[in-house]
Design a protein that fits this description.
Helix content is 16%, strand content 29%. Strands 2, 3, 5, 6, 8 and 9 form a six-stranded mixed sheet that branches. The protein has a three-stranded antiparallel sheet with strand order 1-4-7, with no helix packed on it. About 13% of the residues have low confidence. The protein contains two helices and nine strands, in the order αβαββββββββ. β8 and β9 form a beta hairpin. With 197 residues, it is α+β, with helices and mostly antiparallel strands. The termini are far apart. The chain has a single domain, classed as chitin-binding protein cbp21 (Coagulation Factor XIII, Chain A, domain 1, Distorted Sandwich). InterPro entries: Cellulose/chitin-bd_N, GlcNAc_Chitin_IntDeg, Ig_E-set.
């Protein structure tokens, strides 16, 4: 009887251990810090009522291949994750926005909680006249990224910085969509950054 109890205990410990390991690896990825993403603003507590994204801003991972594939329109900021739907809520166009200068250089920054082999980092911006009070769609974005940083399968450091030039001719409120394309999986990480020019 004691041997049977011991066997069940070992089995339960193994199952719980595997569950913990699986959960731990799922929480490691990345988010933009400069400009601060919606997920990062939730983590900081700058924005309230964010749901579970406040504890895992690094987990906005979805299918890669944007804009031809990837998250559905209206679900881009949460990368199709219903549990992160607060990121797709435009909040009446009132997310805190970082001030940028149109046509100026800017250093973009990511915090990676676990680095992956990387294809590239890409940055898209909304078109002039887009509606900041509506969920983000492809039609609201310029069709091509204004900055692409190729990585050719290399693994970045945990603090990634790249300088680029903000598109000229932008004014008022906009959104920058940062996409981190992973080389060795079918996924990418998506980060929505509210800005004002």
């Amino acid at each position: 009887m004691r041997r049977k109890s011991l066997g069940i205990g070992v089995l339960l410990t193994s199952v719980l251990g595997l569950t913990f390991v699986s959960t731990g690896t799922a929480q490691a990825h990345g988010y933009t810090q400069n400009p601060p993403s919606r997920a990062y603003l939730c983590k900081l507590g700058t924005v309230k009522n964010c749901g579970s994204i406040q504890w895992e801003p690094q987990s906005v991972e979805g299918p890669k291949g944007f804009p031809a594939r990837g998250p559905a329109d209206g679900k881009i900021c949460a990368a199709n994750h219903s549990e992160f739907a607060q990121l797709d809520d435009p909040r009446g166009g009132n997310w805190p926005a970082t001030k940028l200068t149109s046509g100026a250089s800017f250093e973009f920054g990511w915090t990676l909680t676990a680095a992956h082999a990387t294809t590239s980092f890409r940055y898209f911006v909304t078109k002039n006249g887009w509606n900041p009070a509506a969920p983000l769609t492809r039609a609201q974005l310029e069709p091509a990224p204004f900055l692409t940083v190729p990585f050719n399968g290399r693994q970045p450091s945990n603090n990634v910085r790249h300088s680029g030039t903000i598109p000229a001719g932008k004014s008022g409120r906009h959104l920058i969509l940062a996409v981190w394309d992973i080389a060795d999986t079918a996924n990418a990480f998506y980060s929505c950054d509210d800005v004002t020019f």
